[in-house]
Design brief:
With 631 residues, the protein is an alpha+beta fold. The chain folds into 4 domains: 172 residues, Orthogonal Bundle (Triger factor/SurA peptide-binding fold); 136 residues, no CATH class; 111 residues; 100 residues, Chitinase A, domain 3 (Roll). The protein contains 23 helices and 23 strands. The strands form 7 sheets. Strands 6, 19, 20, 21 and 22 form a 5-stranded antiparallel β-sheet that branches. It has a 4-stranded mixed β-sheet with strand order 1-23-2-3. A hairpin with a 2-residue loop joins strand 4 and strand 5. Helix 3 packs across helix 4. The two termini are 20 Å apart.
């Protein structure tokens, strides 16, 4: 399917791919252009979009869509322009949010983070887990929280606009009428076998097709490559952290692990039930028993209506002030250690509380942060060792005349890959940096080794090409069967289209639909009812049927289309039955209206951003859009 993809990128495939890309970049507006080299890709109302940010977004697109690497230069520039346009639109939104005063409070942010399951242990937010998960994914809490704050603010705007959308009842009814519309259709299916006897392929036709399509049947350009690779993960396997290093690192970084004052408490809960006064009396009676000397834990197990904590004698665990708001929290954080207070009324009922321990503000205990310390130190050591290996590779490359010399100097293994193409391939992958390096003219010729290629912050390689195979066309003798197959497909499609038109002409001339179908070798069916959303129907036929004009009482609508089976279908639309919204369950109608209203809101949001984009002063650095030589 991907044969000769690069050549076809100049035609309809290129247009289709760029149309797909453009779905993401729906806003287009005017701009001023600057042609002098600058260190920004664009300015939006004076706020810069940096070259680094732009290039990273472009690289991300190539990583997510490897086929884009094969785009010719002019279309790659279009891709880069689309990527930059997306960044411009986002900057327009962020500028508006800043000017309009949209904010996310610390409480909102922490509520979101604390409710994230990945950061919880046994259903509760755990700070150690939070830090460890972020570390494993390359974040620190400050940068992660900044990113989440930005996302929350952007969501505020989108929800506000989408939530204000209104869908008129008359519009929704028209939509339901169209969505539920049925069409009574007679179908006749013609397949390639029906015209097989009429197909004739000559040697001259085969030769002409081969000669007229010089970009087909190509063997892609490729190279045999020897390379040396160092990765951070390989280096990290050799990293050890001693106990002394951990202790010293902890002492040096104590201030990073400060915790607020915490308190460990237990409680007994009596819910309101049907009689709040009776519940309060019961709580007072239990308080009197505790004051008389009965064990708090025994009373909690037997009487507390908090089914989670009652089996543990009412133990609430260790709490911070932010975890326990309201009157109950106020009591816990004002009590003396060992004190018992109550009843305290909250929205849940009446509580009797005992303060078991006060944990003063200060650094977290060493053992509590041991895992995080170990991971951080291992990561730092791995970074240092990886950079040292890169420097060693760079020094070795300076004097080396072969890939073996580089490998010997750094104690690495020389690896090989055969038939590496401009599309990439395993084990090297399809990173543009690697493809650029391998297919550099000097490297490709074997005259020199590549420079060090840093694919990312944790992978570096050096290449030597041992054999280069230019792109070449396979001889006609090797591809004759493929050429014949292509010609047969072409002729079959042309003949089926002609027979379909012949059948339509016959029906319009007065012939019965089934008789006209039989005359061309097609198989006719009795009229059936078709719906727009029929899952079991041929989607090509459905699209053609519902795009056709409505028939009149004595004049059905005739047409033909390619079908999904590689044949042709002739159709006759006999009647149209409008949808019946009243037949739908109320719940289904309401859900559909909500969904359509939300879609309307999305359109409103798009229009809003488009208006912001058109009003913004945008300066684009045209030099930044020049497509790099990645082929």
């Amino acid at each position: 399917m991907l044969q000769n993809l690069r050549e076809k990128f100049t035609g309809w495939i290129a247009a289709a791919i760029l149309a797909l890309i453009a779905v993401t970049f729906v806003f287009v507006g005017g701009a001023n252009f600057a042609f002098i080299g600058n260190n920004y890709a664009a300015k939006v109302d004076g706020v810069e979009i940096g070259l680094g940010q732009f290039e990273q977004a472009y690289r991300d697109q190539l990583q997510q869509n490897p086929e884009f690497v094969q785009l010719p230069e002019n279309l790659r520039e279009n891709l880069r322009r689309n990527v930059l346009e997306q960044l411009i639109q986002q900057r327009v939104i962020d500028n508006y949010l800043s000017e309009a005063g949209y904010r996310v409070s610390d409480e909102q942010l922490m509520s979101l983070i604390q409710q994230t399951p990945d950061f919880q242990v046994d259903g509760k937010f755990d700070m150690d887990t939070y830090r460890q998960v972020l570390l494993e994914n390359g974040y620190d809490p400050a940068s992660f929280e900044r990113a989440q704050r930005v996302t929350l603010v952007r969501n505020q705007l989108q929800r506000a606009i989408r939530g204000s959308a209104i869908l008129a009842p008359s519009s929704y009814r028209r939509y339901l009428n169209l969505a539920g519309e049925q069409r009574i259709v007679a179908l006749a299916t013609l397949n390639a076998e029906a015209v097989a006897d009429d197909i004739s392929i000559t040697d001259d036709m085969v030769t002409a097709y081969y000669d007229n399509n010089p970009t087909l049947y190509q063997v892609p350009e490729s190279a045999d490559v020897r390379y040396v690779e160092i990765t951070r993960s390989d280096v990290a396997e050799s990293v050890d952290v001693s106990e002394q290093e951990l202790r010293e690192y902890y002492e040096f970084n104590k201030d990073r692990y400060l915790q607020d004052e915490q308190r460990r408490a237990s409680h007994i809960l009596i819910t309101f039930g049907d009689d709040a006064a009776a519940a309060e009396e019961k709580a007072q009676a239990l308080m009197a028993r505790i004051n008389a000397g009965e064990p708090f834990e025994d009373i909690a197990r037997a009487n507390s209506e908090d089914t989670v904590t009652a089996p543990q004698g009412g133990d609430l665990g260790t709490l911070t002030r932010s975890q326990m708001p309201g009157d109950l929290g106020s009591a816990i954080f004002s009590m003396e250690e060992g004190a018992v207070e109550g009843p305290i009324e909250t929205e849940f009922g009446f509580h009797i509380v005992r303060l078991d321990e006060i944990i003063e503000q200060g650094p977290l205990p060493f053992e509590q942060v041991r895992a995080e310390l170990t991971a951080e130190l291992q990561s730092q050591k791995a970074d240092t060792l990886f950079l040292e290996r890169e420097r060693e590779m760079s020094d070795a490359l300076f004097d080396a005349d072969s890939i073996d010399a580089v490998a010997n100097a750094i104690g690495a293994e020389v690896r090989t890959v055969e038939g590496f193409t401009r599309n990439g391939g395993e084990p090297l992958g399809n990173a543009p940096e690697i493809i650029d390096a391998v297919f550099d003219d000097l490297v490709l010729s074997g005259e020199q080794l590549s420079d060090i290629v840093e694919v990312d912050a944790s992978r570096s390689l050096v290449f030597q090409v041992t054999e280069h195979y230019p792109a070449m066309r396979r001889p006609l003798e090797e591809v004759r069967d493929q050429v014949v197959g292509a010609l047969r497909t072409q002729q079959a499609e042309m003949l089926m289209a002609e027979k379909a038109e012949e059948m339509i002409a016959a029906v319009k001339g007065g012939a019965e639909f089934a008789e006209a179908a039989e005359a061309i070798g097609a198989e006719a069916s009795d009229p059936v009812s078709m719906r727009r959303n029929s899952q079991d129907a041929d989607q090509f036929v459905t699209a053609a049927v519902f795009s056709a004009l409505k028939p009149t009482e004595d004049d059905p609508t005739l047409g033909s289309t390619r079908n999904g089976e590689g044949g042709y279908t002739v159709f006759s639309v006999e009647a149209v039955l409008p949808g019946r919204p009243e037949a739908l369950p109320v719940e289904q109608r309401d859900a559909g209206k909500a969904q359509l209203t939300d879609q309307t809101g999305v359109g409103d949001f798009i229009a809003f951003v488009q208006a912001l984009r058109e009003d913004a002063e945008v300066i684009i650095n045209e030099d930044a859009l020049a497509a790099p030589d990645i082929l």
